[in-house]
Known about the structure:
Blueprint: E1 2-17, E2 19-27, E3 34-44, E4 46-53, E5 59-65, E6 69-82, E7 88-90, H1 112-119, H2 127-141, H3 155-161, H4 166-179, E8 184-191, E9 198-199, E10 203-210, E11 214-218, E12 230-236, H5 239-242, E13 245-250, E14 255-266
Antiparallel strand pairs: 1-6, 1-14, 2-5, 2-13, 3-6, 4-5, 7-11, 8-10, 8-12, 9-14, 10-11
Amino acid sequence: xxxxxxxxxxxxxxxxxxxxxxxxxxxxxxxxxxxxxxxxxxxxxxxxxxxxxxxxxxxxxxxxxxxxxxxxxxxxxxxxxxxxxxxxxxxxxxxxxxxxxxxxxxxxxxxxxxxxxxxxxxxxxxxxxxxxxxxxxxxxxxxxxxxxxxxxxxxxxxxxxxxxxxxxxxxxxxxxxxxxxxxxxxxxxxxxxxxxxxxxxxxxxxxxxxxxxxxxxxxxxxxxxxxxxxxxxxxxxxxxxxxxxxxxxxxxxxxxxxxxxxxxxxx
Length: 267
């Protein structure tokens, strides 16, 4: 499937910002299941300081704000050809060893909520069936809802809320999969939604490692594995390592952010 993506993130600050840095993980890479035909990232109100690959082989752009800036606009545009591999990404590659994806993080630390979730989960015989069943089990216990209290809930906090968005589902799945003995990671990217070209945000899902298959994706929020409508951009142990934008700034005053995103199929 040939997808065209246009993604703009606009920041406004009530007071001039004397200094700020941001890391952008907004550049997808060509892999077995996707071929990046073209991709551009532009920044209005700032400048590119450096580009590099992080420990997860994500492409990262480091940008600074122009001194005194109050408006920053980051625009990504490109086209990607995606193949439906039934969610299978394949063998482990990159700089990070596979065993590191067993590691607990602040956002995926298991607790009483996860133990309660897993207490009535019946594990099928095969690893792949177990992970698909786990995805379904999480969605039945924590239904999708945009009415979330925070953008940075831990897996335990999301379980306590009893509902969540894609980010919450990914963290819960990662925590549970690791408890079952499967290395797991967070994925940020894009999803072309059915009959909806304009979207309010990018998407997130999880991947778990299965012997004999490699990495396999699970989109808990939509109850499926990624297909040709999904574009993978960045991966990490949790959201903090795969966030589309992250950074720091000096100065006081509120910040507002607006996202416009269009994902559409090209003929």
